[in-house]
Amino acid sequence: MHSLLFEPMRLGPLALRNRICCLPLYLAYPGPDNEVNDLVLDYYAEMADSGAGLVVVENATVEPCGLGNPRTLLASDDRFVPGLARLAGTIKERGARAVLQIHHAGRYARRPDRIAPSAVTTWGVTPKAMDQADVDRVVAAFAAGARRAKEAGFDGVELHGGTGYLLTQFLSSRTNLRTDAYGGNLAHRMRFPIEVLAAVRGAAGAGFPVGYRFLADECVPGGLTLAETTPFAGELARAGVDYLSVMIGCYDSFSLPGYVEADREEGFMAPFAGTIRAAVPGVPVIAAGRIQRPETAERILREGMADLVGLARVIFADPLWPRKASGEILEPINPCAPTCSLCTKRIVEQKPAFCARWPEERRERFLERVGG
Ligand SMILES: Cc1cc2nc3c(=O)[nH]c(=O)nc-3n(C[C@H](O)[C@H](O)[C@H](O)COP(=O)(O)O)c2cc1C
Questions:
Q1: What's the CA gap between 302 and 275, in Å, rounded?
Q2: Which of 26, 47, 248 should be mutated for ligand 1, with most atoms under 8 A from CB?
Q3: 133 DSSP assignment
Q4: CATH assignment at residue 255
Q5: Does any domain span residue 34?
Q6: pLDDT tens by residue, 309-320
Q7: 165 is catalytic
Q8: What range does the domain containing 359 cover?
Q9: Count of H helices and E strands in the chain?
Q10: I want to staple 53 with a disulfide (CB 3.0 to 4.6 A). Which of 16, 67, 240, 352 is the partner?
Q11: DSSP letter assigned to residue 127
């Protein structure tokens, strides 16, 4: 049967060589200076060399109080532009399109000065409820982050609305208890992410795609579900978003038994992408979630659940996934193990992540390089 996966496509103004997206995967590779370093460059070179059409770079944070981990890329100052430019160049010279994800962790920031829509205690710390000055500053910080991404030579930016971070904290009535124009009914709770999108659009200018990492379901009791996220997707489409990259789950659900079980299922997030795609005709949608076999990827595209398939842990475990899927390399794919969480454990410990499925020699070389 004809392969859809290797059909070129357009993402707004960008021509992609295929429909495979290397999803953002934060691996604690930057150092405490929050700069692009050789470890980061080598990882993204490998991801671009994988053959994926689109490479989305992990959570570059737009202001220091939004850092989810001290060892995270920053895009909060012009001094980070040269490093980001090396990163964009490394990806693009390998024939992939490079998008920078821009980010603010809000209540999930590992910082004493963390801020959030409301003072909801999180991991034992109560964040400051954002006042209007904070709102205006963060909107401007996202816009400046997008401007820096463009100056650095990225092909586009993606707003990180996934994993329950700041943009989602405004959308969810669990974490947004405000009584002003940014809280209350759904229209009010959408206001902040829509303002961020508008500001980023303005800063990015025409011809520079702005995507959105989209949380379709928080997977917690009382959390966001498709009932509220589907109309939000429509609002993002009306505001001119260039693509939606759909995921489910947040920090409050990642350890719940129901989520842990779902996460072991191949393609488990794809039906959510399908529902969102049906609500935003004409806006490309990326599906994620343990898309382990090329047959599953083809099925997701063929059944209209998504326009692109996204791989994170899957392509980290086997960076040859696209070449094996295309038949260029005639070896079996080395699958991410469904019951393993080594990469997540390493980043929680603030140590550079590696994959338990890598060959032993590669694991040893990596540990030697990063000092254990
Ligand atoms: C260790 C780790 C780091 C992640 N970092 C990011 C990130 O920086 N930005 C983001 O949008 N999603 C992030 N994700 C979510 C992934 O992009 C992806 O949606 C999820 O892992 C499911 O795809 P997979 O089964 O191929 O891993 C991360 C996931 C893991 C496990």
A1: 15
A2: 26
A3: H
A4: 3.20.20.70
A5: yes
A6: 999 999 999 999
A7: yes
A8: 9-370
A9: 13, 12
A10: 16
A11: P
